[in-house]
UniProtKB/TrEMBL annotation:
<comment type="pathway">
    <text>Purine metabolism; IMP biosynthesis via de novo pathway; 5-amino-1-(5-phospho-D-ribosyl)imidazole-4-carboxamide from 5-amino-1-(5-phospho-D-ribosyl)imidazole-4-carboxylate: step 1/2.</text>
</comment>
<comment type="similarity">
    <text>Belongs to the SAICAR synthetase family.</text>
</comment>
<dbReference type="InterPro" id="IPR001636">
    <property type="entry name" value="SAICAR_synth"/>
</dbReference>
<keyword id="KW-0436">Ligase</keyword>
<dbReference type="GO" id="GO:0006189">
    <property type="term" value="P:'de novo' IMP biosynthetic process"/>
</dbReference>
<dbReference type="InterPro" id="IPR050089">
    <property type="entry name" value="SAICAR_synthetase"/>
</dbReference>
<keyword id="KW-0658">Purine biosynthesis</keyword>
<dbReference type="Pfam" id="PF01259">
    <property type="entry name" value="SAICAR_synt"/>
</dbReference>
<dbReference type="InterPro" id="IPR033934">
    <property type="entry name" value="SAICAR_synt_PurC"/>
</dbReference>
<dbReference type="InterPro" id="IPR018236">
    <property type="entry name" value="SAICAR_synthetase_CS"/>
</dbReference>
<keyword id="KW-0067">ATP-binding</keyword>
<dbReference type="InterPro" id="IPR028923">
    <property type="entry name" value="SAICAR_synt/ADE2_N"/>
</dbReference>
<dbReference type="GO" id="GO:0004639">
    <property type="term" value="F:phosphoribosylaminoimidazolesuccinocarboxamide synthase activity"/>
</dbReference>
<protein>
    <recommendedName>
        <fullName>Phosphoribosylaminoimidazole-succinocarboxamide synthase</fullName>
        <ecNumber>6.3.2.6</ecNumber>
    </recommendedName>
</protein>
<dbReference type="GO" id="GO:0009236">
    <property type="term" value="P:cobalamin biosynthetic process"/>
</dbReference>
<keyword id="KW-0547">Nucleotide-binding</keyword>
<dbReference type="GO" id="GO:0005524">
    <property type="term" value="F:ATP binding"/>
</dbReference>
Length: 236
């Protein structure tokens, strides 16, 4: 497979391939937090997130969620459909944590009466601000129909993941999704991993995600390995 570098982000490198509408994604071990203010490395994170994301996309695809994932091609690489990314990050929240807990004055860990969907303007220079459908309209970030689709998919993905993870004794606190357009269809893109989700052990409340890096809790790699083990039975 011929590949040419196209883009390098905080956690991944993107390469073109010899197929016009397919890209190769390489998962790095680099870790960032607080819009890039905190930087570091998590050993084997790229390998673990590639496997975890593969598992989640397969699960969601089997449950009717269209996505960009084609196949995992190596320990750190996966083949995906090329997307025109919508500059709207979609966050689903089930339990107050992080910025939401601070914003509404609830203690972290308090369950919300119902899941909520928030949308953020995907713009590093502005710090990815919280926006609503009116902002999205005037900024022309997505059409009204696309916004409706994002919300519908977000709630459905939350239901699928929450029900599945409950069986693995994992509480899905909140998570971030990114979407793009491929041949006119809105598809789920990016990744689903401990980088983009808050996972807590449902019995002990132990954090099993990137908050361990953000908050200097230690044992970051072990948390990622634990998620992979509970999902697949694989010991990394």
């Amino acid at each position: 497979m011929e590949k040419q570098p196209l883009y390098e982000g905080k956690a991944k490198r993107i390469y073109s391939t010899d197929v016009a509408d397919e890209l190769l994604v390489y998962y790095k071990d680099d870790a960032t937090a607080f819009n890039g203010l905190k930087k570091g490395t998590i050993d084997s994170k790229g390998v673990l997130n590639n496997k975890i994301t593969t598992f989640f996309f397969d699960l969601l695809g089997k449950n009717g969620i269209p996505h960009h994932f084609i196949k995992r091609v190596s320990e750190r690489e996966q083949l995906v459909k090329s997307l025109k990314i919508l500059p709207v990050e979609v966050v689903v929240r089930n339990i107050a944590a992080g910025s939401l807990a601070k914003r509404i004055g609830w203690e972290e860990g308090r369950k919300l009466p119902a899941p909520i969907v928030e949308m953020y303007y995907k713009n590093d220079e502005l710090g990815d601000p919280l926006i609503n459908q009116h902002h999205i309209k005037i900024l022309e970030l997505a059409t009204e129909e696309q916004v409706k689709t994002l919300e519908e998919y977000a709630f459905k993905i939350n239901e699928i993941l929450t029900n599945y993870l409950r069986e693995k004794k994992i509480e899905l606190i909140d998570f971030k999704l990114e979407f793009g357009v491929h041949n006119g269809q809105v598809l789920l893109g990016d990744e689903i991993s401990p980088d983009t989700c808050r996972f807590w052990d449902s019995e002990t409340g132990e954090k099993l995600d990137k908050d361990r890096f953000r908050r200097d809790l230690g044992n970051v790699e072990d948390a990622y390995k634990e998620i992979l083990f509970r999902l697949t039975g694989e010991k990394a």
